[in-house]
Amino acid sequence: MRILLTNDDGINAQGLAALAAEMAKHGEIIVYAPASEMSAVGHAITLSDPLRFSECRKNGEFFGIAVRGTPADCVKVAIWDLGRQDRLPDIVLSGINQGSNTGINTIYSGTVSAATEGAISGIPAVAISLASYTSGDFSGAAAFAPIIARQLLAHPLPPGVFLNVNVPAKPLEQIRGVRITRQGMTNYREEYEIRKDPHSRNYYWLTGDKMEVEPDDEIDDRAIIDDEISVTPVHCDMTYYPGLDMLRKWQISL
Amino acid sequence: MRILLTNDDGINAQGLAALAAEMAKHGEIIVYAPASEMSAVGHAITLSDPLRFSECRKNGEFFGIAVRGTPADCVKVAIWDLGRQDRLPDIVLSGINQGSNTGINTIYSGTVSAATEGAISGIPAVAISLASYTSGDFSGAAAFAPIIARQLLAHPLPPGVFLNVNVPAKPLEQIRGVRITRQGMTNYREEYEIRKDPHSRNYYWLTGDKMEVEPDDEIDDRAIIDDEISVTPVHCDMTYYPGLDMLRKWQISL
């Protein structure tokens, strides 16, 4: 299989290196990743400015293309660039992100947006995140990547649907299983810290603690708490379907 | 009512001015908007850098707070700032965006992400866009804003659900009605244009034409084609629910 890899922590991130090393055993890997760290960029795409590429080498060998843009830009430009060479990927893998992309975080995630971009283009796609902001143990997540990639290629999903995977920061042997989950609504209790710059002007910095996870075993964060891998089927249709009937009853007139 | 206004075209945009002028007739308006244009930023939030505010005056009068950040940042920081003053808004209105936010565009939209942020915080929210990139006729969209705001306040939606409104670029009298719609999947046929900078290095610029809209009257873009206002109930749960059963049948094992 031909595998397009990207991420939002940047082309030099440890999680991408772990994913690339594992997936190279299973197919041809092609890397287009942001030149610098791009966390919490949501589904940003670069329209007002041009994109630039450069080659990224590791240990003297070509590793991939560094894109001065967002994760969604990377996948968009990679699919365009590979398409004109008749080398479209069979699958897009985005990650391994340092930190979980569960609950409300899912919608802020550059990692998830890169997978979204793959799915929009009709290519099977998976976002993979490590459920820790500090652990360097990507081994379980890396080992799970080819398992989920093969499953997805064997079981095509409807157009626009892709997978959001979160993995406990442990070796695969210590992970207790795989749980199919839905996105939780767990959010952060947020504050802005007020600071003064050297010129006595205020600036504001976002901080926050994660709220308690909903007590429902089907929630993404619950799987992680139970040392299981969370696999959530996601799509890019934001419609709240039960709302269609609700709103029709409003009888809005001009 | 106390109305928080924001947008993604920036605090000096014509669409925000039109919305502010109209809504000032119906309540207290409070503006927190990006200092500069922020289109297609998706649901980006600023984590790595601090935010800064400045006062924006128009015709010698205080108009609002210009935030050096994204639309989602504006709403997040406004809710924090107003909350600590005991002045939380009753509703968040984001717009009037220059250009429709329908189909796949919905997920790239800063205008929509600002409304999402309101909804996440439990405040009724509406994203309003003008279905034209060129027309300066915001009159129909501005006139519809208080109508939909009152409807939403009279009929609370479930937590996390908000409205994505797209309005034809016409006076209200020439608009044929209001249609409750779902988000279409209409996308752009995209290309990158390759150019050379003065130093003979390539750069790449995204271009594209909108694809044909699905032939289904319930689609957001179809309402616009028929000169109607499109009102789509949206939420920030990306789960593809039919996928839960599909994936359980895969029986993924480690």
Write the CATH fold name of chain A.
Answer: Stationary-phase Survival Protein Sure Homolog, Chain: A
* Number of distinct beta strands of chain A: 11
CATH superfamily of chain A: Survival protein SurE-like phosphatase/nucleotidase
| Sheet/helix structural class of chain A | alpha/beta
Terminal Cα separation of chain A, in Å? 55 Å
Poorly predicted parts of chain A: none
- CATH architecture descriptor name of chain A: 3-Layer(aba) Sandwich
If interface size is counted as residues with C-beta under 8 Å from the partner's C-beta, which chains form the largest one? A-B, 82 and 82 residues
The number of distinct helices of chain A, counting runs of at least 4 residues, comes to: 6
Strand content of chain A: 25-35%
The total number of structural domains of chain A is 1
> Can you give the helix content of chain A as a percent range?
25-40%
CATH class of chain A: Alpha Beta
Q: Based on CA inertia axes, which overall geometry of chain A fits?
A: globular
What is Rg of chain A? Answer: 19 Å
Give an account of the 3D structure:
2 copies of one chain form a homodimer. The first copy, chain A, is an alpha/beta fold and 254 residues long. Chain A has a single domain, classed as Stationary-phase Survival Protein Sure Homolog, Chain: A (3-Layer(aba) Sandwich). The first copy, chain A, has 6 helices and 11 strands. Chain A has helices at 14-23, 71-84, 110-120, 139-154, 220-225, 242-248; strands at residues 2-6, 28-34, 53-58, 61-67, 91-98, 125-130, 161-167, 178-180, 188-196, 202-210, 229-235. In chain A, the strands form 2 sheets. A 9-stranded mixed β-sheet of chain A has the order 3-4-2-1-5-6-7-11-8, sandwiched between helices. Chain A has a two-stranded antiparallel ribbon with strand order 9-10. In chain A, strand 9 and strand 10 form a beta hairpin. In chain A, helix 1 (14-23) crosses helix 4 and helix 2 runs parallel beside helix 3. The first copy, chain A, is globular, with a radius of gyration of 19 Å. The mean pLDDT of chain A is 95. The interface between A and B is large, with 82 and 82 residues.
